[in-house]
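Incident review: delayed structure delivery

Summary: a single-chain prediction request sat in the queue longer than the usual turnaround. Root cause was a stuck worker, restarted by the on-call engineer. No data loss occurred. The affected request and its eventual output are reproduced below so the record is complete for anyone auditing the incident later.

Affected input:
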Amino acid sequence: MIIIMFKAAAIWCLMVLVAIGNAGIREKLLNPAFGSGPALPLSGLTLAFFLFVLIYFTLPFLGGRQQWQFIVVGVLWFLLTLAFEGLFGHYGVGKTWRELLQVFNIGGGNLFVLALLTTLAGPWLAARFRGLI
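Output delivered after worker restart:
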């Protein structure tokens, strides 16, 4: 299981790059094309989609074969994502905790919660779709 955790951490690093790329797409393409109001939820949807595609195609690399392994990986990714969002956002970028909590403001159009749920449930769902469990 330790090897799976190290592999999962490597895949999670790719997820961070995907999220950064998705933010770039939002700023360079979606905001100018649609305005910041529609671009934010659209960006949340595209991030969840890109993350699931990444999870789906990298899942065999993990080597897991049991349902509980994919659940543990999902919990790990979920916790890493929350920690990164909070700690890097606060200490790295200098956002206040109040500003950081806005990523959970679905009413304001932020669908980051969907990306979080994708990191949590994605490994198990992708394993089911791929017939690994």
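Verification: DSSP finds five helices and no strands in the chain.
Action items: add queue-age alerting; document worker restart procedure.
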